[in-house]
Amino acid sequence: MKIGIVCYPTFGGSGVLATELGMALSEKGYEVHFITYKQPVRLNFHPNIYYHEVSVPTYPLFDFPPYESALASTMVNVIANNSLDLLHVHYAIPHASAAYFAREILKKTGKDIPFITTLHGTDITLVGRDQMYAPVVTFSINESDAITAVSNNLREETFKSFKIEKDIHVIPNFVDVQRFYKSNKEHFKKMLAPSGERILTHVSNFRKVKRVEDVIRVFQSVREIIPSKLLMIGDGPERQMAEELARSLCIYNEVRFLGKQEEIDEILSISDLFLLPSEYESFGLSALEAMACGVPVISTNSGGLAEINEHGVTGYLSNVGDIQDMAKHAIHILSDDERLQQFKKAAIQHTRKFEKKHIVPMYEQLYKEVIAAYKSKKEVNI
Questions:
Q1: HEC assignment per residue over the chain
Q2: Nearest-CA neighbor of 86 among 145, 138, 36?
Q3: pTM (two decimals)
Q4: CATH class of the region 2-174+356-381
Q5: pLDDT value, residue 135
Q6: In this predicted structure, what is the pLDDT of residue 41?
Q7: Whole-number mean pLDDT of the chain?
């Protein structure tokens, strides 16, 4: 099977999942073609993987280069030149609409193929609800040959917000336990916490929805009781605010803003607690990766987080903005070594159901069903 994957090539959950899925499929012998404007951050070389860059010409006529048109044209060329069997687009805007455009162009040549749209979160809960985009989002999702969502919560939100005319398959995100596991990095931990301080970690793209201010304030409350350090991984529009807040609270020397990092697994291996106080998470892939490395999670109960973070077992859930409750739970876990180890073991055990070997076959089965149904429909129409 030859599969085209379209995604954002960033550190965000949708790009990470799409990239990890493509690499997993390539390891199973599938030919995978990534189509995006730059190489995905987690993409590694494999003989079965091909990368096609979307080049967007700039002209004085355009204030904003027409990426969607360039993407659709690139899809047409990649599909036609490589005889792809299926297109899998991640994130509705603008990938689903570009896929529909490409499919309609290819129908004129008899080389058209089905496409699957995977919904990841803010493409539905934030951007998609904008009245400027809603008609296109609704149309392109409905024109998809299959739709998947990464959590039951996102499935429900999509049906609530849009007039979707077909079923949405829930296929959760997965974690690669060959990469994300508790490894021995004690020498790194001693460098960051030389006096045995607890290490708290946050990973995100530092957008407002991540509520990084809450991360700083929860940490401030924790370190008043327990000697601690905070690692802030990632970058984005809220980073400067978070740094300024840490300075104003006189805790900046206890916080390290490390920016974007490739070796997230190594950082998680030295962490004692993961903080994710987001306003909304459709799934919370970063929390799942943390748990796979034996890190309990303090998160909000928004979106799909309750589907992966088991309250009182792998960590705790709090209402959005309830800094006091999050800090209380964090202190409860970190204040007792035996209790902390119990949470760490439970976190690792819980992630087993989200292993790659369980989730990837769900996509494979859907691919086969969609291709078979599409071929059958074409034969009927001939």
A1: CEEEEECCCCCCHHHHHHHHHHHHHHHCCCEEEEEECCCCCCCCCCCCEEEEECCCCCCCCCCCCCHHHHHHHHHHHHHHHHCCCEEEEECCCCHHHHHHHHHHHHHCCCCCCCEEEEECCHHHHCCCCCCCCHHHHHHHHHHCCEEEECCHHHHHHHHHHCCCCCCCEECCCCECCCCCCCCCCHHHHHHHCCCCCEEEEEECCCCHHHCHHHHHHHHHHHHCCCCEEEEEECCCCCHHHHHHHHHHCCCHHHEEEEECCCCHHHHHHCCCEEEECCCCCCCCHHHHHHHHCCCCEEEECCCCHHHCCCECCCEEEECCCCHHHHHHHHHHHHCCHHHHHHHHHHHHHHHHHHEHHHHHHHHHHHHHHHHHHHHHHHHHHC
A2: 145
A3: 0.89
A4: alpha beta
A5: 87
A6: 81
A7: 92
* Spans in the chain with pLDDT lower than 70: 61-63, 126-130, 378-382
Joined together, the tokens standing for residue 250 give 């006189």
Question: What's the confidence (pLDDT) of residue 156?
Answer: 93
In a 13 Å sphere around the CA of 254, the CA atoms on its Cβ side amount to 24
Q: What homologous superfamily does CATH list for 186-354?
A: Glycogen Phosphorylase B; (3.40.50.2000)
pLDDT at site 131: 75
Q: Which pLDDT belongs to residue 127?
A: 59
Helix (H) or strand (E) segment spanning residue 156: helix 152-161
So where are the chain's domains?
2-174+356-381, 186-354
Rounded Cα distance, 54 and 61, in Å: 20
